[in-house]
Specification:
By secondary structure, the protein is mainly alpha-helical. It has 11 helices and no strands. It folds into 2 domains: 162 residues, no CATH class; 52 residues, no CATH class. Helices cover 63% and strands 0% of the residues.
Length: 237
């Protein structure tokens, strides 16, 4: 396969973790983990953890729709999205035992913004110029894979609204003083997003992020980090 924008072989080490074995899919089924690419990705997840999951979703979600999205990257993104969905209450029995064990050990690492990342990645897999989607649509648009992935999107659309509203409402209405460390996980995610895309912080930008104790501001920066073309664009008011 030719190299594609956002999912070249060089970027795959960033997308999935170094040493990931790329090969044509042998096992093939309509659900997220019923293909070799997703199973291989899940095996790597035990080593590279939640940062790998977020890199997978971020890179696929940002992949240019004018260029073809690699089938392996698409399958891996759908698998990552299934784990995010399960972490937020969606049908855990869709995830194999190995994935459920990883979720049990990492449940507290997930944050509301993971829902947005997962939804964007799955929508990109469903969009034009996606090898995985095209393979399934060869037999017609009415197929079990499309129905399965569409159920994920529907869950994300519902749950992300609920989760973000809960976070903002709790923050704005709470009369208790803020914790000593505010938005620490969200700050870490911002750094991961931007550095995975080759963007680098200046000392002043890193200081500004580290010293902010305004969760609403940090969440606003996090939303910008997904599509920002520079670190400065994240902090621009």
């Amino acid at each position: 396969m030719a190299e594609r924008d956002g999912v070249s072989r060089l970027s795959r080490d960033v997308l999935l973790g170094p040493g990931y074995g790329w090969r044509a899919m042998g096992a093939w089924g309509s659900q997220a983990f019923q293909n070799d690419s997703a199973v291989n990705w899940l095996n790597q997840l035990r080593t590279y953890g939640i940062d790998m999951l977020r890199r997978t979703l971020t890179n696929v979600g940002l992949a240019n729709e004018l260029h073809e999205l690699d089938v392996d990257a698409g399958a891996s993104a759908v698998a990552a999205a299934e784990l995010v969905a399960a972490a937020f209450g969606f049908e855990r029995d869709r995830v194999p035992p190995q994935g459920r064990a990883w979720l049990d050990a990492n449940q507290r690492a997930f944050v509301a913004s993971d829902l947005t990342l997962a939804k964007r990645a799955v929508q990109r897999v469903l969009a034009p110029n996606s090898e995985l989607s095209a393979l399934w649509h060869d037999g017609g648009a009415d197929n079990p894979w499309h129905a399965d992935v569409s159920a994920l999107v529907a869950f994300f659309e519902h749950r992300s609204r609920t989760q973000i509203n809960e976070v903002l409402t709790s923050t704005l209405r709470s009369s208790a003083p803020p914790p000593r460390v505010v938005g620490e996980r969200e700050k870490q995610i911002i750094v991961t997003f931007l550095e995975a895309r080759g963007l680098r912080f200046t000392a002043e930008e890193r200081r500004r992020l580290a010293t902010s104790e305004n969760l609403e501001e940090i969440l606003r920066w996090l939303g910008r980090a997904v599509t920002a073309t520079s670190v400065a664009a994240v902090f621009d008011e």
